[in-house]
Specification:
The structure is a homodimer of 501-residue chains. Helices cover 63% and strands 3% of the residues of chain A. The first copy, chain A, has 20 helices and three strands. Chain A has a three-stranded mixed β-sheet with strand order 1-3-2. In chain A, helix 5 (98-120) packs antiparallel against helix 6, helix 14 (353-370) packs across helix 16 (415-435) and helix 16 crosses helix 20 (483-497). Chains A and B meet through helix 1 and helix 2 of A and helix 1 and helix 2 of B.
């Protein structure tokens, strides 16, 4: 058994290294690559993807893994979860017929292009045939993967392994029922707060210095990471020792860069926080997109948009932008970064309404994959839901159903992980506040390392040893629910807007 | 035949794309990578090297290529040289036993480390056992590759395909015999010129602007390239549309950055100058390191250290460094960048003595691989040759036999390509001056595009269609000789130093 395990481990370590190379191709494309290299880069990515697929689905690998599973009682406590996760990935990979994989890659590439063009003209009819093709292929993919409950489960599992609609539906429903009255109460509140402070002109070079200072304070190891610029912020890289975050700068919208950097650094801390002895194995990989997002959101919102964080940050704003913030204070900044207002665009939404955007997308994509609504009905369904949940109605589809790239790219099942990230984060937070009683004082002083260590110890270092639900249970003593998140919003926004929630 | 060719071409295009990915791993390591990622990067490079080797030596590829060669009369004029070059590469690759390849990779990696450590203490005895191991393995590699003349031929062929000692020896001998009297005459000349001007303090940020302006003027396409910093300047990248040059900055040694950038941009123009319709085939690859170096050296020396180039450049120096060059002029700059003085370190040598450094290394490594001298004799042999050729003797081996990384890395056969580059360059230059009669006026005006087009048309766009010797014959009407190079030195340095050469 030992020998088989070692062969398999070496093979998978190699595969992991090749995935790292792929990570570099992707990062470079968004940050460094000369613009005329687009075609060559797409060939490089496609060639390496072919190698990765070939190796991930090799018969030899399957033979090793089945042999190891058959003798799993002989494996150590570290080896067992590795074999379990390798086999899970392997079995998913081999279920997709190569022709379908190619067709999907090709169609989603063309479809994203069609979406970008149609979106410019807000022309949903031009995009609809492409979306229909993508939906058809994703249904085929779901059927190839198989599922126990509903077809959407198979797609959700690609991003949030082991999560099902049966578990997710009541959670999402709870979020929706909890959020709509909060949004309405804030809308009707007498107390108004304003974001004017963060729409003043903040010179870019100084913003960059601020971002670097904050991510270092968070504990992101600069010898194992770098920060660059890209159109859309992301966290990528090639390895736990080579984490690459990006942000973007908008001179008259301070949160773009600052909260972009904090968010991505939260992802980066998860990547860096795995146990070095497991590098190259599933025990040094992230559990799911939802758990990953719980780390970025925790830092961005629960830490970064908190009152003590504003007290930590405001002196830095005075240092970097003395004339801009001269007549403001920490409380004004706290209010400015927490104004709530219904809006059309998800990525620009505040901490509260953001989640309603996700609820809306989840409900729609779930029905679309389930066959309960058709592509042509999407704009109407979208706009009606916007009216019901937000009280506003998009004037054009570019600000509505066509705003996000996800569907054109075939990423059905991805959206809910954004919301799950907020829920996991709030549930961790509830626990953290009990475990670190002086957390608020620490944050106000810019001391983030105790928090980072807690996250490392309780979440990061486990890699994929536990499933997301096992981890939540293990860390918080209960299953995932929307309650901690809603309680957090009630307390915070009740106070900010002077209302009882 | 058509179908076999197409399969083979698609396969090789994929392989070429994977090589591009490897290029990115290498470039990034020297320019962007966080410092603690060293180990992970080496695993990524090793994993991808494994894939490349596996694919380059696949039996299926050999079958296709042998079939194509057997029916080469059915191939087009473009297909024939592709098959010829693919087969050449394939046959070289399969000749190396995998165990030897692994042993070489491992030993040269350790040996480079040993060299770096031993060099710090100038302790040749500590490095000698490693060098002996490397030499033994390189002899084994040469025997596996096979050769008609002498063993060194097999290694030389790795960098300068189809070149042999039989052809090279008389050329090198001619260079040596031509250079030694030039160096002596310059040493004894009454006229002295000085490099003081280029040792003043040139602020780094301004140097960078100057470098960027010059490489753009040379015609390097900024949409298909980028320029960064690294410890040692190089030209890398992933594709002709993604060429990446680097340079390094020294505030009190202007040539480091400027001539580093010009040199690497010369390489970059070759990479960018291939015919796009052949991307991914040998017809869009470089012929040899010598031919590659002929492009970098042509720009660095024949253009960049010329009198008309000084007239072009000096106004830019006045623009970027007004106070530094206030009391100088173009002629002073021309003299400063062309001072000749025997010195110990190859990479810091002037345009004349540089070549004697290479002659010395060639003679030694050829004897070492041939078994005519032993590793332990190296310091003595080196120092004696320095005395004979340069009239100076190193005080320590760190400034002598241990100065270059090449031997520890197993790069036997590489050094002569530096010299060949200068010879090819001078032979092109002789022709170019006839074909572009007003070249000097163009250079003085900073008009480099006619020159770039000539190089593109006559050299770059052929890729590997012709061998180096065929290309030289085709372009210049004669075989490679040292005469144009020596004639160039005689004219230029005779004039600069007021001596008859």
């Amino acid at each position: 058994m030992n020998q088989t395990y070692e062969q398999c481990q070496a093979y998978m370590k190699d595969l992991s290294a090749l995935s790292g190379a792929m990570g570099l191709l992707g990062w470079d494309q968004e940050t460094m690559m000369p613009k005329k290299a687009t075609e060559a880069r797409s060939e490089q990515i496609s060639a390496l993807a072919g190698v990765l697929h070939e190796r991930a689905t090799a018969k030899q690998l399957g033979d090793w893994l089945h042999e190891l599973r058959a003798n799993s009682s002989e494996l150590s406590a570290d080896e067992q979860p590795c074999v379990r996760e390798w086999l899970r990935d392997y079995e998913k990979s081999v279920k997709i017929p190569p022709e379908l994989a190619k067709e999907l890659a090709k169609t989603t590439s063309l479809s994203q292009h069609a979406w970008a063009e149609a979106r410019k003209k807000s022309d949903f009819a031009a995009f609809a045939p492409w979306l229909k093709k993508v939906v058809d292929l994703k249904r085929q993919q779901a059927d190839a993967l198989g599922y126990e409950g509903v077809r959407y489960d198979a797609l959700l599992d690609n991003y949030e392994p082991r999560m099902t609609v049966k578990e997710l539906d009541p959670i999402i429903e709870g979020v929706r029922q909890g959020l709509v009255p909060i949004v309405a109460a804030i809308h009707e509140s007498k107390k108004k707060i304003t974001n004017v402070l963060i729409t003043k002109k903040y010179p870019e070079a100084q913003q960059e210095k601020l971002c670097r200072e904050v991510v270092v304070a968070m504990g992101l190891d600069g010898d194992m990471s770098r920060m660059d610029r890209s159109t859309h912020p992301f966290c990528g890289g090639t390895h736990a020792t080579d984490v690459r975050i990006t942000t973007r700068f908008s001179e008259k919208w301070l949160p773009a860069a600052l909260y972009g950097a904090i968010h991505e650094a939260g992802h980066g801390l998860y990547e860096q926080g795995v146990d070095p002895k497991y590098y190259g194995t599933p025990l040094a990989e992230s559990i799911s997109l939802g758990i990953h997002e719980s780390q970025s959101r925790l830092w961005e919102n629960l830490v970064g948009r908190s009152e003590p964080f504003s007290r930590y940050l405001f002196p830095k704003l005075k240092k970097y932008f003395p004339s801009v913030v001269r007549s403001a204070n920490a409380q004004k900044f706290y209010e400015a970064i927490n104004t709530v207002k219904p809006s059309f665009i998800r990525v620009e939404a505040d901490e509260v309404t953001y989640n309603l955007h996700v609820v809306l997308r989840y409900e729609i994509e779930r029905a679309l994959i389930g066959g309960d609504i058709q592509v042509k009905e999407l704009p109407g369904v979208w706009n009606d839901k916007m009216q019901t949940y937000f009280g506003i109605r998009p004037k054009k589809d570019a600000d509505g159903v066509m705003q996000d790239v996800h569907w054109s790219a075939g990423l059905f099942g991805y959206f809910p992980t954004y919301l799950l990230g907020n829920l996991y984060a709030a549930q961790w937070w509830e626990k953290i506040q009990k475990k670190i009683p002086d957390l608020n004082q620490q944050i106000a002083k810019g001391k983030f390392l105790v928090l980072r260590e807690w996250l490392r110890e309780n979440i990061h270092r486990h890699g994929r040893r536990y499933s997301a639900s096992e981890l939540v249970e293990r860390v918080t003593g209960k299953s995932l629910t929307a309650e901690p998140f809603l309680a957090y919003l009630h307390a915070k926004y009740g106070n900010l807007y002077g209302i009882k929630l």
